[in-house]
Write the structure tokens for this entry.
Amino acid sequence: MIRSFRLPARTCAIASLALAALTPALSFAQATGKIVLRVADQFPLTHFMPRYAIKPWMEAVTKATNGEVQFEHYPAEQLGKAKDLLSVVQNGVADAVLFAPSYASDKMPLTAALELPGLFDSSCKGAQAFAKLAAPEGILGRQEYAPNGVRVLFAAVYPPYQMVSAKRSIATLKDVDGMKLRVLGGAMDLTVRRMGGVPVRMASTEAFEAISRGTLDGAIFSYGVTANYNIPTKFATAGMGFGSAAAVFIVSENRWKQWPEHVRKAMTDAGVQAAASLCAGMDKEEAADQEKLRAKGVSIVRWSEADLAALSQLLGQVANDWAVELDKRGKPGSEVLKAVLAARDGR
């Protein structure tokens, strides 16, 4: 069951759901013969995340369990803001959520390695590497997700991000100097700083208003996010790759242990299918979304060879800077970066 309406009183709804979450899932299943789970995310139903991944995942699990497992879907931040969805699943308000770890970079800083510039040229290449790292036995599974009490059912990396601007020309590298640009988190923050811009960390759902008001000059986004969120845009780059964004579909480890083995298997198998469907869909739509922007009058700009060479030199140190910064904080930044590169190269 997909509930696409917006809750009239979010606070009351969350409080009620939190109270309901105190009842163990298995007790409910024993009483009714059904396991009804709540799934939450930040996106409207028209976004590719629900279309290619979340909805198919729910349908596949229900089918594999012969209707034993059913779902209530709360899209569009109905159960919490994008940045709060980790706590939503940890607290049992939802049973599964789609979450961008960089929204909680204090708790999940290592996943940002997947967001470094120049790592992947497609969503599917990024997702294949991410799946290895995010598995329970992978370095991110052990170092990042298990300590936060969650398990990854599928992981995603967006297609390489471009730069979009509401008004200012971004025809050259010099144009970026001083621009206030929305970024997702730490890796993208370093990228923008290297170019002379001013990074502003913000959820994608808040970017429209900030750019419309002129609080920001633009953003580092994929074409799909820019088009789907109607981000005010006059200029957009092409062929760059200023990093990307990573997302994980997670359940709490406590809930995972409550579910029967056949349910866990159905969820795992459906996760593999959802990851493949999602990355293929995002890669397919990226070119179409660029054309959508062009049709709206957005100027698609390509930098000169000289600017591209200068950019490559600037960004060449971002990965090392990121890893060293994490190492200094007592986190295995260099180890994770090495693992990401190995996974990318099939090693």
